[in-house]
Specification:
Number of domains: 2
CATH topology of the largest domain: Aminopeptidase
Largest sheet: 10 strands, mixed
Number of strands: 10
Strand order of the largest sheet: 1-3-2-10-4-9-8-7-6-5
Structural class: alpha+beta
Order of helices and strands: HEHEEHHHEEEEEHEHE
Length: 250
C-alpha cells in the first residue's frame, strides 16, 4: 500500500511540474506552471507558487515567459532563501514585465496531511453525512456555501453536526486540482457557525470526515493561511502533520 507521504509527493510533483522526491535536501528546482491546475482555478497562467517542502526541499512553479529570470534568481539559493521576502520581491519584479500581472506578493499558506488512523471525537450534537435532501439549516450567518448543496454531498463526502433542527458545523470535500489524483487525495473545506466556535465541534466534524475519507482509501489534506492560528490548531488537534508551506506572487 502506498503511504500518505508518497501520495502527497506525487500530487504536488504533478501540480508543480517538478519531481519533489528527486530533489536533494537543500536543492531548489524551477519549473513551468501546471496549466491544467491554474487555468482550472481561474488564475490564468500568471501565478507563482513555491513549496517549502517538509524535507527541506523547495520547488518553484512559474509562468514560462518569466522562467529564465526566476531560474537565475533561484540558482544556488537554499529553500530558506527562496521562501524569504527578498526573493519574493525580486520575483515580483521579474513577473511585472508580463501583461496583466501586478507583481504583488500574496500571503502564505500551510498544507497539512493526516498520516494515520483517526480516533472518533464525541460531542453533544449529531454528526453524520449530509445529503442534498437536508437543505440549508445553518445556524446564524454563513461565510461559505451550504454543504448540502455541494457536489460532495451527493457522494456521501459532506458531513455536518446538528443540534436539534440547526446545523452548526459542516465540512465538504474539495475537488483536487490534479484530477487524476481524485481517488487518492481529499481536501476538506470546513466551517463552524460563529456562535459555536471553540467548543470542539470543528474537531468532531473534521475527525468524522477524515475517518470516512480514510475508509475510502484517500489521503486527507487540510490547507489554511499561515496566519490562521485557529485553523492550524484544529488540524493539529485531529493529528494532521505539516507537509509544506507556500507563498504566492500574482
Amino acid at each position: 500500500m502506498i503511504d500518505a507521504k508518497t501520495i502527497l509527493d506525487r500530487f504536488y510533483s504533478l501540480r508543480l511540474g517538478v519531481c519533489l522526491p528527486d530533489l536533494k535536501p537543500g536543492q531548489v528546482a524551477v519549473a513551468t506552471c501546471d496549466r491544467r491546475t491554474y487555468a482550472g482555478l481561474g488564475y490564468g497562467f500568471v501565478r507563482l507558487l513555491w513549496v517549502f517542502h517538509f524535507r527541506d526541499h523547495a520547488a518553484v512553479s512559474i509562468h514560462p515567459a518569466a522562467l529564465a529570470e526566476v531560474s537565475r534568481l533561484a540558482w544556488r539559493r537554499t529553500p530558506d532563501e527562496v521562501i524569504a521576502d527578498e526573493f519574493v520581491a525580486a520575483t515580483a519584479k521579474a513577473l511585472a514585465i508580463l501583461p496583466g500581472v501586478s507583481g504583488d506578493a500574496g500571503g502564505g499558506s500551510v498544507i497539512f496531511y493526516h498520516p494515520g488512523d483517526v480516533e472518533p471525537v464525541t460531542c453533544d450534537g449529531e454528526v453524520r453525512a449530509l445529503t442534498p435532501a437536508d437543505g440549508d439549516r445553518w445556524a446564524g450567518t454563513r461565510v461559505y456555501a451550504g454543504a448540502a448543496d455541494h457536489p460532495s454531498a451527493e457522494r456521501g463526502e459532506a458531513f455536518g453536526i446538528s443540534l436539534g433542527a440547526r446545523v452548526i458545523a459542516e465540512v465538504i470535500t474539495h475537488e483536487p486540482s490534479v484530477a487524476e489524483m481524485a481517488h487518492l487525495i481529499a481536501e476538506d473545506g470546513i466551517e463552524v457557525a460563529e456562535a459555536y466556535q471553540r467548543r470542539g465541534y470543528g474537531k468532531a466534524v473534521l475527525a468524522a470526515w477524515t475517518r470516512e475519507m480514510q475508509a475510502k482509501g484517500r489521503v486527507c489534506v487540510h490547507s489554511t493561511s499561515s496566519d490562521n492560528v485557529a485553523s492550524i490548531a484544529l488540524a493539529k488537534s485531529v493529528g494532521y502533520l505539516e507537509y509544506a508551506r507556500t507563498r504566492v506572487v500574482t
